[in-house]
Amino acid sequence: MKKLFISIFLIFILVNAASALVPQIPNDSLKFSGTIKDVDGKREYGIVSIRADRNDGFNLSDSIISVKSKIDINGNFSFSLPNLGKPFKIGIAVRNKNGNLLFNKAFFTEPKDSIQIQIFQMNKRDSVVFFGRGMEKYNLINKLENQFYEEYISELKRNVSEIQYIQNIKSDKEVALTMEKWADVLRRKKQEKLNLIQSSQLDPRMKSIINFEFALYNIDWGFRTGLLYYEAINRKQLSKSYLEFNKEFSDNINNFAVFSPAFASGTVMNTILELKIQNKSDRANLKTLYDRIKSNYSGIIRDRLLGYALLHKNVVRATESFTPYLLDSLLKDATQIVKLDYVKRAFNRKIDQQKRVNNVKIIDAEFLGSNGKKISLKSLKGKVFLIDTWFNGCDACAGFHKVFDKEIFQNFKNNKDFVVLSINIDKDKERWKSGISSGVYSSDEYLNVSTEKWLDHPFFNYYQIQSAPYLMLVDAEGNIIYQPNGNATVKTMSEKISLALVERLNHASK
């Protein structure tokens, strides 16, 4: 069944609030400077952008650190980051004057780091070298990632070519042999990774963090198997081989894993795969996933995994459809046991958001119509309407619109009682208009309106909307009756709209 691909787009803002995990944050900042060697002689470099998160990659809207530094004519740049008193992951991206991405890598920084960066080639992965205090971990991470994306992936293609079509293999023996060959490569590369980490002069904490976050051979084992699982002819043998080696490739967990976003996502998604295999199904049950994490993990690691399991869109897409009431009950249970402050705050925020949208009246709000006049939500009373938010350049918004317009809207567009309220959040009016006229994000058959000011709008603030596309179905009485999530289908959404229209007619005839 075709999916409505709805993925979250987090709006990153620069904030200065301290993480509750670190009561006292040092005042001294972390200093970075760098030089980009001019390779092609065109000197078209634009900016270096840096993104980090105060809450160990948990990505609450009030925890994001975003910094930009212009690159001068000589290729020099510099920036500073707050000292959080703990390790945290940073992403460093270089763009040219046209905004095109030239370089993009992630690293971990620590208190007292003072780093000089040299980027001397844009089209090779070994194009960056670090100097200064703390340089060893940056260079180690760079080397590990190069080995993973170049050597490991290349070796898989070269020596285990069968992995590319294993889903079409029927023979138990051939499937088992292919998985064993893959496991041999993975085992060897993982050991090389561990040897490099252990031979470094880094402290035990940073060694653990790097192991959990980079060159993720164990996560790749689950990720690739999960992709193959959906289409495998011999799913039984594929599953058997996966489980046979899975324990061997799992890392020994310690509390330093809480700093690693990749550990949280990889562990939860691999658990989902195990549940699918166990139940011989295409999807896992959210309640079963929740109970498995509660029973298998403890302390801050359990808290971090529960946070990902209950709040991340990837989990929604990989689990069976669930009601808002099930999610509410799990969130309320989780708030009673979690200790990590940022996870508890995220749960409470989600509970509050759920209260505002589950079968309650929608608030009134005004938007700017494409004709230049104000349009209020109360003016739509008596209509069934679907709210869809978007911005120009949002791939997920375009993906949703393509499926919705072709497979759902065409069945309802001639019904005068149904309206699509297409809310654009671009600040630039021309980007809004071009997004409509292109037909990529919206349609001139919809009721097109704009916030005029990104997410800083009363409607978005009230419902704590931080993503696009954000969808909401409202009945003729103004009640919010459905919020499609990541595993929504064309059939489900069509049925919800049809039912709301039938109820509208029944109500009107009384």
Blueprint (SSEs and pairs):
Blueprint: E1 30-36, E2 45-53, E3 64-70, E4 76-81, E5 88-96, E6 101-109, E7 114-119, E8 128-133, H1 135-159, H2 172-198, H3 204-213, H4 217-231, H5 235-249, H6 261-279, H7 286-296, H8 299-311, H9 313-318, H10 324-337, H11 341-357, E9 366-369, E10 374-376, E11 384-390, H12 395-407, E12 418-424, H13 429-438, E13 447-450, H14 458-462, E14 471-474, E15 480-482, H15 490-509
Helix pairs in contact: 1-2, 2-5, 4-5, 4-6, 6-7, 6-8, 7-8, 8-11, 10-11
Describe the structure in your own words.
With 510 residues, this protein is an alpha+beta fold. It folds into 3 domains: 30-132, Immunoglobulin-like; 137-356, no CATH class; 366-509, Glutaredoxin. Helices cover 43% and strands 18% of the residues. The protein has 15 helices and 15 strands. It has helices at residues 135-159, 172-198, 204-213, 217-231, 235-249, 261-279, 286-296, 299-311, 313-318, 324-337, 341-357, 395-407, 429-438, 458-462, 490-509, and strands spanning 30-36, 45-53, 64-70, 76-81, 88-96, 101-109, 114-119, 128-133, 366-369, 374-376, 384-390, 418-424, 447-450, 471-474, 480-482. A 7-stranded mixed β-sheet has the order 10-9-13-12-11-14-15. A hairpin with a 5-residue loop joins strand 14 and strand 15 (480-482). The protein is globular and about 75 Å long. 34% of the residues are buried.
